[in-house]
Amino acid sequence: MPSNQELPSVFRDLRLPVVGSPLFIVSNPKLVIAQCCAGIVGSFPALNAREKDGDPIALEAWLREITEALDAWNQANPDTPAAPYAVNQIVHRSNTRLERDLEICAKWNVPIWITSLGARVEVNEAAHSCGGIALHDIINNTFAKKAISKGADGLIAVAAGAGGHAGPQSPFALVQEIRDWFDGPLLLAGAIATGGGVLAAQAMGADLAYIGSPFIATDEANAAPAYKQMIAEYGAEDIVTSSLFTGVSGNYLKPSIAAAGMDPDALESADVKSMNFGDGSSKPKAWSQVWGAGQGIGAVKSVGPARAVVDRLAQEYLAARERLL
Ligand SMILES: Cc1cc2nc3c(=O)[nH]c(=O)nc-3n(C[C@H](O)[C@H](O)[C@H](O)COP(=O)(O)O)c2cc1C
């Protein structure tokens, strides 16, 4: 297992071994900047930056805003520099923007590239062309091997209980099988929401934790107030796994499904062919009020600034280390 010193240099000076994961619609420059300035990697899906026909390219504006804000932070706070940021590319045939977005990200020297839903050589090459590293998210060992064979530098193991398109496997099983053959950067996702959870991911063999749902309940997140409140109020029993909404199995808040007029305990399944990222979404408009979240949300007690989430994780991480040592 690599020690911290062997990790790619982008991960070496983090306050905490955590990546704030990309969240469709929810992640925006404000959240990314707050995460990075608090000392963890912040990220967003490129498809979140959308413009109307004829408007300047939003992705370019977002990358400028993030780059300038992090530069300004670093000048004002040389002792606590910002963490690097990541951009997520949905590598699915229905993502018609992919080629354009790769070019823009290479032009802006994006330091960390996260790919999901498809491993492609040219995406990894685009990341390497500007000195970036490419991490690919996977839900099993077969996809992990495929991702590395196509040139990804590291893996994000998405285990059971994760928000979004979670995998079905236990994190223990997933990490142990990957660590059998892979000693590169390995991130673990799935219901990690406390500092103790971050340390547990490392104890298991992962290098960093990949955390999404707790950042939905932040001031900076682009989410409806009722969505943020649900994350703060509910827990693992209030999450249901269903393929109905995007064609792929994902985790959702039961109360949001009930509010949309459906019975969350009697959902039909859907066909994977219904996935479509052409307009940035894979979810029909009628279900835009059906909200995704992972099983870890019981750790989130209130809505507040993203920095407060990172502070809590950092305190808990240190306390967990002390407890064990
Ligand atoms: C609302 C929501 C939207 C998501 N959107 C994306 C996305 O656009 N791209 C992606 O790679 N992962 C997406 N994910 C998955 C997360 O990046 C990450 O794998 C997951 O949140 C980790 O589990 P956790 O929420 O339990 O921490 C999404 C997750 C949620 C909850």
UniProtKB/TrEMBL annotation:
CDD domains: NPD_like (cd04730). Keywords: Flavoprotein, FMN, Monooxygenase, Oxidoreductase. Pfam families: NMO. One of its GO terms (molecular function) is nitronate monooxygenase activity. Belongs to the nitronate monooxygenase family. NMO class I subfamily. This is Nitronate monooxygenase family protein. It comes from Gymnodinialimonas phycosphaerae. The lineage of its organism: Bacteria, Pseudomonadati, Pseudomonadota, Alphaproteobacteria, Rhodobacterales.
